[in-house]
Specification:
Layout: E1 31-36, E2 39-44, E3 57-61, E4 63-65, E5 69-73, E6 79-89, H1 93-98, E7 102-109, E8 120-122, H2 129-134, E9 137-144, E10 147-153, H3 160-167, H4 182-187, E11 195-198, H5 210-218, E12 222-228, E13 251-256, H6 257-265, E14 270-273, H7 275-294, H8 314-327, E15 332-337, E16 352-356, H9 363-371, H10 376-385, E17 396-400
Parallel strand pairs: 1-17, 3-12, 3-14, 4-11, 14-16
Antiparallel strand pairs: 1-2, 5-6, 5-8, 6-7, 7-10, 8-9, 9-10, 12-13, 13-15, 16-17
Helix pairs in contact: 6-8, 7-8
């Protein structure tokens, strides 16, 4: 049964001065709030290895943010911002970034009503010769409410990954109320980012330095990765009064067979770095159910976890995925999820969570409330009362599930 949750119950006052507009000079010098057994304390992020159980699993999202924000101009002089969301033609991210000459993306288009179907040219106020040579154009193929299918064409034989590097900018969150700056190219990216495809950083990972990671390894903690490409849905507020009326966007993810086998064996504490890792790991259970009941994996729908009782154990569900992959000579699970985690959700995989502090009335705050058994206000009141910095470039928390 879909939970009836009013988003206004997940509101709090976040003064603008508490939003971190820039990262701290040292990634790991941010504050760390620790929530365990209903009590809240404060330390420094560099001390996080001390709070993690040895012989546990720690799962990171190694997606990489792409410079997906492009500024175009109409022949009339009107400016149109195009924000690449997900590839359409070709559909696979790896293939897309290697594509030469033309491609199509699903995009968010600013001032889309002012775009009358004419071909746009990239805005190039400094007459950058590389941009002139590339001659990047955008054509409107179709429009669907907030989003549109846009075809890009360019001339110089470069792959689309290089086109974005030269022509695009890192899509920092709109609540920072500033343009992208050179510092964002380095700091709005985790140290372990590997696979291009996200339009927002998995920000919990921004605090990790090589020193912190090395100390985690020294403690015997097993570092593992998943890859979920973060979509612009991360930025979209819940506009309906009831959460049941909010639509989650699909996000594709990849999980290695070796990790699924480790999770299926159980017996170890699992720490997820970031809400994207949580959504990936918790989606695995429902994909396992599909493998049991329909014989193959498929996407997880938004409300699937709430629509019936599931009698399978976590190990049974995960082992079903592992068996499907082995039987088909696959080493990776590639699928997508629209899962929404709200109070009432039954966690089956994740025990501890590293995460930043999230916007009022957001789906991420609902996830936090579900994870800590409704104690989100205690945690956020502590953070507000103790000068914690909020949102993407803000401070961090380590939450133990209730």
């Amino acid at each position: 049964m879909i939970p009836e949750i009013r988003i206004e119950d997940y509101n709090y006052n976040l003064p603008d001065e508490r939003i971190a507009k820039y990262p701290l000079p040292d990634r790991s010098s941010s504050k760390l709030l620790v929530y365990k057994d209903s009590s809240v304390s404060e330390t420094v992020f560099s001390d996080i290895p001390e709070y993690l159980p040895s012989d546990s699993l720690m799962v990171f999202n190694d997606t990489k943010v792409v410079p997906a924000r492009l500024q175009f101009v109409r022949p009339t002089g009107a400016h149109i911002e195009i924000f690449c969301l997900e590839p359409v033609q070709p559909k696979e991210y790896v293939t897309m970034f290697d594509t030469v000459g033309s491609c199509r993306w699903k995009c968010i288009v600013g001032n889309v009503k002012r775009w009358k179907g004419d071909i746009l040219s990239l805005y190039n106020p400094e007459n950058n010769p590389q941009i002139i040579q590339m001659d990047l154009k955008a054509s409107l193929i179709e429009r669907d409410g907030q989003t549109a299918i846009v075809e890009f064409t360019w001339e110089d034989g470069n792959p689309f990954s290089r086109v974005l590097e030269i022509c695009g900018s890192v899509p920092i969150p709109p609540y920072l109320n500033r343009g992208t700056e050179s510092i964002d190219n380095e700091r709005y990216q985790t140290l372990y980012a590997r696979y291009r495809g996200s339009v927002a950083a998995p920000t919990a990972g921004l605090h990790f330095t090589e020193n912190v990671l090395e100390r985690i390894r020294e403690k015997g903690i097993d570092e593992q990765t998943v890859c979920l490409h973060v979509g612009a849905g991360t930025f979209l507020p819940v506009k309906s009064s009831l959460v049941s009326q909010h639509t989650m966007h699909r996000e594709p993810f990849v999980v290695e067979l070796s990790l699924i086998e480790k999770l299926a064996r159980g017996g170890r504490t699992v720490t997820a770095v970031g809400t994207t890792s949580v959504r990936t790991l918790e989606s695995l259970y429902y994909i396992g159910v599909k493998c049991i009941e329909q014989g193959f994996p498929s996407d997880v729908d938004q409300w699937e976890p709430y629509q019936r009782e599931y009698g399978y154990t976590t190990s049974q569900a995960l082992e079903a995925i592992a068996k499907y992959l082995r039987d088909n000579n696959l080493t990776q699970l590639k699928v997508g999820t629209r899962i929404i985690i709200v109070p009432g959700f039954k966690f089956r995989v994740v025990d501890m969570l590293v995460t930043n502090f999230h916007q009022p009335q957001s789906t991420l705050l609902l996830l936090i409330s579900a994870f800590v058994g409704g104690d989100w206000q205690k945690i956020y009141n502590f953070a507000l009362g103790n000068d914690f910095r909020f949102l993407s470039y803000g401070d961090s928390s380590l939450l133990c599930r209730r």
